[in-house]
Amino acid sequence: TAINLNASTLATIYHSCQRELCHYEAGSSLQVENYITLLGRSLGIEYPDKYKQYTISKDQQVILGDAAPYIQGNGLDPKRAKETIQRTFCS
User: Fold this and answer.
1) Per-residue model confidence as pLDDT tens digits over 2-30
2) Main-chain dihedrals φ then ψ at residue 33, nearest 5 degrees
3) Of 24, 35, 51, 54, which is the most buried if we count CB atoms within 10 A?
4) Which of 23, 18, 56 is nearest to 37 (CA)?
5) What is the DSSP letter of 24?
6) Distances (CA, A) of 24 to 10, 14, 18, 54, 78
7) What is the spatial distance between Cα 54 and Cα 39, in angstroms, rounded to a whole number?
8) How crowded is residue 63: how many other Cβ atoms within 10 Å of its Cβ?
């Protein structure tokens, strides 16, 4: 049985919960936000949740483009980084 609570936001309290639940936002009117994001927003601080953006978009090329300076700057293996991005965000 479905229950309609008329909620607009699901607030997560742990980063691991945010990672596990943020994909439910795709195609839904429900926003999934970490409580720290909500606290910051209430103080006038906006910071994008890149993990959520990447999870919802599943756009490997955009993610790789954003990550490229960090991959190179930290001497990471580009092939392994690409595989990790694929496994984490695009599967």
Assistant:
1) 566 688 999 999 999 999 999 999 988 88
2) -130, 140
3) 54
4) 18
5) G
6) 10, 16, 10, 13, 29
7) 22
8) 22
